[in-house]
Amino acid sequence: MSDPQFVLITGCTDGGIGAAFARSFYRRGFHVFGTARSIEKMSQLKSIERITLLPLDVTSSSSIQAAVEQITPITGGKLHYLVNNSGVSYVMPALDTDVDEARKMFDVNLLGVLAITQAFFPLVRESRGCIMNMGSITGVLNAPWGSLYAASKPALITMSETLRLELAPFGMRVVTIVTGAVESNIMSSRNQFALPNDSMYRAITDIDAEKVVSDVTTNGTNGTIWRGSMASTVRWLMMKMPAFIVDKVLLQGTGLGLLEERAAL
């Protein structure tokens, strides 16, 4: 019988892609460690065997250390996949942005990923495993109202892709996942929105999670992959369309075009 393989996934709140990742890895025989700030936010996973739920705040060094101490003896000091999925959103015009809120967002979306990666790296190194980081198409779009959130994503993508090169000599992989509309429920803490267990739309999230997990576990993908609704379309548009056309679409789609028209009167 082969030795069990282990995966740690942050941001496994109900209805999001983190929970979908957990189910997908579970179906492939992995022992899954699913985490969120509160175990109560992972109710959809609590009755599934081989999924161990742990509280984890990616901005808290003591919370991270506690998770390391819980996971290490169970895994024998090896972690085959680390999925950095935790993220928060902040939608606001740049001039109206609360700087303290923006700092908190960067603490989760960028520095939290770094903190988790540093803490669990010894376990991933032992298995010559794979680190997966969640980017977003917002990181390649100049989308009005999302400047600070969008800024956090290319910062993460750059860090992730640089880490890939830094770990390549050690036979380790780093995968950056650029997601589309199916990204996650990062807005749930503000909107109280999450897909219920029986939602007919949950299959969309599950399907995209399946594709990503297949990419990294079966195909041995390394580097950047684009998955989720509109991700490939946005990638193509950004490469092929003139910038002024993309700007026009974004201005009209967010209502800023109306302000521009009124200013011209």
Structure report:
InterPro entries: NAD(P)-bd_dom_sf, SDR_fam. 47% of the residues lie in helices and 14% in strands. With 265 residues, the protein is α/β, with parallel strands linked by helices. It has a single domain, classed as NAD(P)-binding Rossmann-like Domain (Rossmann fold). It has a 7-stranded parallel β-sheet, with helices on both faces. Strand 5, helix 4 and strand 6 form a beta-alpha-beta unit. Helix 1 crosses helix 6, helix 2 packs parallel to helix 3 and helix 3 packs parallel to helix 4.
What's this entry about, in short?
Belongs to the short-chain dehydrogenases/reductases (SDR) family. The chain is an alpha/beta fold.
Question: What is the residue-mean pLDDT, rounded to a whole number?
Answer: 81
For the record, the CATH class is Alpha Beta
Query: How much strand content do the residues show?
Result: 5-15%
Summed up, the domain count is 1
CATH architectural name: 3-Layer(aba) Sandwich
Report on the biggest sheet: 7 strands, parallel
Strand order of the largest sheet: 3-2-1-4-5-6-7
The ordered H/E elements are EHEEHEHEHEHHEHHH
Look at the helices and sheets and give the structural class.
alpha/beta
Query: Might you state the CATH topology name?
Result: Rossmann fold
- Terminal Cα span: 75 Å
Radius of gyration: 19 Å
Overall form = globular
Portion in helices:
40-55%
The tally of strands reads 7
**Number of helical segments?**
9
Counting copies of identical and different chains, the oligomeric state is: single chain
CATH homologous superfamily - what is it?
NAD(P)-binding Rossmann-like Domain
Unreliable parts: 182-193, 200-204
GO molecular function, one term: triacylglycerol lipase activity
Protein name: Oxidoreductase
Keywords: Oxidoreductase
Family: Belongs to the short-chain dehydrogenases/reductases (SDR) family.
